[in-house]
Write a structure and sequence with these properties.
heterodimer, A: mainly alpha, two-stranded antiparallel ribbon, about 70% helix, globular, B: mainly alpha
Chain lengths: ~475, ~170
C-alpha cells in the first residue's frame, strides 16, 4: 500500500501537505475545504497522484488542526471541531490544556487510522457493487446523496435542500451537454462553458468568511497558554478507549454516507460518548471522554468520506467534493473502473492518508505550541493576504477575469446565506452532483422510452429511492423527538 | 436563550414585510420566477434530436421545487419566527465596497493594482495602522503571489497599467 509513495517527491508533498493542513485547521474560518480549494490551482503543475496526495494530507491534518483552536481559544478551527470546544476549552480553563490536546491528538490519530482501514476494505467492495449500476441506479444514488443534505448540520433541513437544489441549478448554466443549447448564459460568452467549481467554492467559503470576519474585527479571543502537550495517562486511556473505538466506528459510518461529513460525525460521536458514559454530568465541564468522542469521530469521517468519493464519484463531504474536483481536473474518473485500471494510484491515496495521520500526530505532539501561536496572526493581516491568493488562484484556472467576479458574487451570496441559516455546503454538493443527476435522468428516460415509472422496476434504484425517503423523513422524526423531550 | 426569545418577540411585532423571513423568501421566489421565465426562452429541440426531455425541463423542475420549498420555509417561519440578526457593522459595508471597487479597478486600470489597493484598504479599515504591515499586505505579498503565479504556474495576468510595465 505504501510502495507507490516511496519517492522523495511524494514524501515531501505529504510532509508539506500535512503541515499546511494543520496551519489551515488552526486558523478559524479557513480549514481543509477552503484550503483545498485555494491549493487546487497549484496542483495543476503536479502529476495526478502528487496532487491528490497533497489534497488528502491537507484534509486529514486540517480536520485534526481544528481541535487546537477549539481547546485553546474556544473557537473551532474547522466546523468539525465544534463539539471539541464543549469539553476541550473547559478542561483547558482548569489548567489542563496539555492533557486536552494530548487526548485530542491521540483520538484523532486512532480515528483517522481506523477510517483508512475501513477505506481500504470497503471502497473496493462498494466499487465492485457499482458494476451492477446503470444510469437509473446512478440517478437514484445521486438523489439519495442529495436528500442526505437534509440532515447535515444543525440547520433547517428544507433550507439545506433549497441550497442543494440551487447548487444543481448552477450546474445547468452553460451549454446543455446533450443538445448544446445555451441555458442561463444571458449572452455572456464566458458562461457557455458553465460556472466553474473553484470560483464557487472559493467564493462560498473563503470570500464569505472574509465578509463574516469583517463583522467580527473587534472580537477578542482569550487564548489559554499551553506549556506542553501531554500524552493521555493510563487512567485516561482506561476511561476513553471504548469511546475512541465507538466514535471511530460512528465517524467512519457517517463519513461513508454521501454528503455527510466530519461535523455531523463529531456531533453524533460526542452525544453517543455522553450517552454511554458513566459520568455524563461531567460533559460540558471538561470531560476527557467528550474530547475523545468528538475528535475520534471527526477524523474517522475523513477515510469514510473517501469511500463513496473514490468508489462512486459521490462526495462524502465538502472537502471530498474538492478532492473529487481535483481528480476530475487531473483526468482521473472515480468509480469502479478506477479500482480495476489504476490500483497503484488508489493505494497511493490510501497510503498517503495513513502516513498523514501519523505525521499530524508527530507535528501535533511536538509542534502544538507553535501552531497555537498561528492563531495570533491578526485577521487584518491574514485576510487581505488570503484575498490575494484567492483572486490569483481563481483567475489561474481558466485565465478568466469573469471567474474572479463570479467568485466575489458567490462570496457575497455565501455571506447572506450563512447569515439567514442556509448552509453553503449543499450548494457545493449540488454543483458536483448536478451533471450526474441530470445526465443520468435524461439517459434513463431514453432507455425507458420516457416512462418514469420504470425507475421503480429496478431493485437497486428502488432501494435508493426508499433510502432517500428515509433520509427526508429522518430530520422530521428527530425534531419531533427533540420537541417531546 | 432569553435573548433569542426576546428577539423572537421583537420579530413578531414587526409588520410582515419588514421581517427577515419575508424578505429572504421574497427575494428567492422573485429571482426563481425570473429564471423560470428565462427557461421559456431556451431553444426547443426537434423531437428527432431530443434525448429524454427538453433542455429547459430539468431547470424548470428545479426552480419550481425551489419556489415550493421556499414557500414551506416561509410558512414554517410564520409559526416559528426567525431571530432578528444584528445590524451589520460599518466594516462589513466597507469590505463589500472594496469588492465592488476591486471589480471596477481590475477592469478599468489594472489587476495587480486592484489587489494591492483592496489589501491596503481592508487592512487599514480593519484596524492596521502600521505602515510596514500595510506595505507587507498591500505590496510585498501581492508581488510574491504575482511572481509565483507568473513564473511557477506560467500564468499571464490580464493587461493593465502596472502589469504592462512588468511584461515589457
Amino acid at each position: 500500500m505504501l510502495a507507490p509513495l516511496f519517492s522523495s517527491k511524494l514524501l515531501l508533498i505529504l510532509f508539506f501537505g500535512t503541515l499546511f493542513g494543520l496551519i489551515l485547521g488552526v486558523l478559524p474560518g479557513l480549514g481543509p475545504t477552503t484550503g483545498g480549494a485555494l491549493i487546487l490551482p497549484f496542483t495543476m503543475t503536479l502529476d495526478p497522484l502528487s496532487a491528490i496526495v497533497l489534497l488528502t494530507s491537507i484534509y486529514c491534518a486540517g480536520t485534526y488542526g481544528g481541535a487546537i483552536t477549539a481547546v485553546l481559544i474556544n473557537t473551532p478551527g474547522t466546523p468539525a471541531a465544534a463539539a471539541t470546544c464543549l469539553d476541550g476549552y473547559p478542561l483547558a480553563q482548569k489548567g489542563e490544556a496539555g492533557r486536552a490536546l494530548g487526548m485530542a491528538t491521540v483520538s484523532s490519530t486512532v480515528g483517522g487510522i481506523f477510517s483508512v482501514v475501513i477505506l481500504v476494505f470497503f471502497a473496493p467492495i462498494l466499487a465492485q457493487l457499482a458494476y451492477e449500476f446503470g444510469q437509473p441506479e446512478y440517478f437514484a444514488l445521486a438523489i439519495f446523496g442529495l436528500t442526505m443534505l437534509a440532515s447535515i448540520g444543525e440547520g433547517s433541513p428544507i433550507k439545506n435542500l433549497i441550497a442543494g437544489a440551487f447548487g444543481i441549478l448552477i450546474s445547468t448554466v452553460g451549454k446543455d451537454f446533450m443538445t448544446s443549447i445555451d441555458r442561463f448564459t444571458f449572452g455572456i460568452n464566458e458562461l457557455t462553458e458553465g460556472i466553474g467549481f473553484i470560483p464557487v467554492v472559493v467564493g462560498l467559503f473563503a470570500m464569505s468568511e472574509m465578509l463574516t470576519q469583517s463583522t467580527l474585527i473587534n472580537q477578542i479571543f482569550n487564548r489559554i497558554a499551553l506549556k506542553a502537550i501531554k500524552l493521555p495517562s493510563k487512567d485516561d486511556y482506561k476511561k476513553t478507549w471504548k469511546t475512541i473505538l465507538r466514535s471511530s466506528g460512528i465517524g467512519s459510518f457517517i463519513g461513508v454516507l454521501p454528503a455527510e461529513g466530519g461535523t455531523v460525525a463529531s456531533l453524533i460521536g460526542y452525544s453517543e460518548a455522553k450517552r454511554f458514559s458513566k459520568n455524563p454530568e461531567e460533559f460540558g465541564k471538561g470531560s476527557i471522554e467528550g474530547i475523545a468522542g468528538a475528535e475520534a469521530a471527526n477524523n474517522a469521517a475523513t477515510g469514510g468520506a473517501m469511500v463513496p468519493t473514490l468508489a462512486l464519484g459521490i462526495p462524502g463531504s465538502a472537502t471530498t467534493a474538492v478532492i473529487l474536483t481535483g481528480l476530475i481536473i487531473h483526468g482521473v474518473r472515480p468509480g469502479p473502473d478506477l479500482f480495476r485500471e489504476q490500483p497503484d494510484f488508489l493505494y497511493g491515496i490510501f497510503g498517503a492518508m495513513l502516513i498523514a495521520n501519523i505525521l499530524f500526530f508527530i507535528f501535533g505532539f511536538f509542534g502544538a505550541k507553535i501552531f497555537a501561536r498561528i492563531t495570533l496572526v491578526p485577521n487584518k493581516i491574514l485576510w487581505p493576504m488570503i484575498f490575494a491568493v484567492s483572486v490569483c488562484g481563481t483567475y489561474s484556472l481558466n485565465q478568466s477575469i469573469i471567474d474572479v467576479w463570479i467568485m466575489l458574487f458567490f462570496g457575497v451570496l455565501g455571506f447572506f446565506m450563512r447569515r439567514y441559516g442556509f448552509s453553503v455546503v449543499p450548494v457545493i454538493i449540488g454543483l458536483i452532483l448536478g451533471e450526474l443527476v441530470e445526465g443520468t435522468l435524461r439517459q434513463s428516460l431514453v432507455i425507458f422510452d420516457g416512462n418514469w415509472l420504470m425507475f421503480f422496476t429496478r431493485p437497486i434504484a428502488l432501494t435508493f429511492f426508499i433510502l432517500s425517503l428515509i433520509a427526508l423523513a429522518f430530520p422530521l422524526i428527530r425534531s419531533r423527538k427533540l420537541k417531546k423531550k | 436563550m432569553k435573548n433569542v426569545q426576546k428577539s423572537k418577540r421583537a420579530n413578531k411585532s414587526l409588520p410582515f414585510f419588514f421581517k427577515d423571513e419575508f424578505k429572504v423568501s421574497f427575494i428567492i421566489i422573485f429571482i426563481s420566477l425570473i429564471l423560470l421565465l428565462t427557461t421559456f426562452t431556451f431553444d426547443i429541440v426537434p423531437p428527432i434530436l431530443n434525448r429524454g426531455i427538453q433542455p429547459a425541463t430539468f431547470p424548470k423542475a428545479l426552480l419550481i421545487l425551489i419556489i415550493a420549498m421556499t414557500l414551506i420555509v416561509y410558512y414554517l417561519a410564520t409559526k416559528n419566527p426567525w431571530k432578528i440578526e444584528k445590524k451589520l457593522p460599518r466594516s462589513f459595508f466597507l469590505t463589500l465596497f472594496s469588492f465592488i471597487m476591486f471589480v471596477i479597478v481590475s477592469n478599468a486600470l489594472d489587476f495587480f493594482l486592484a489587489i494591492s489597493a483592496l489589501s491596503i484598504f481592508v487592512a487599514y479599515y480593519w484596524g492596521e495602522k502600521r505602515l510596514f504591515y500595510l506595505l507587507l499586505v498591500g505590496i510585498i505579498f501581492p508581488i510574491i503571489v504575482f511572481v509565483f503565479f507568473e513564473t511557477i504556474l506560467g500564468l499571464r495576468f490580464p493587461p493593465g497599467i502596472i502589469t504592462n510595465i512588468y511584461y515589457s
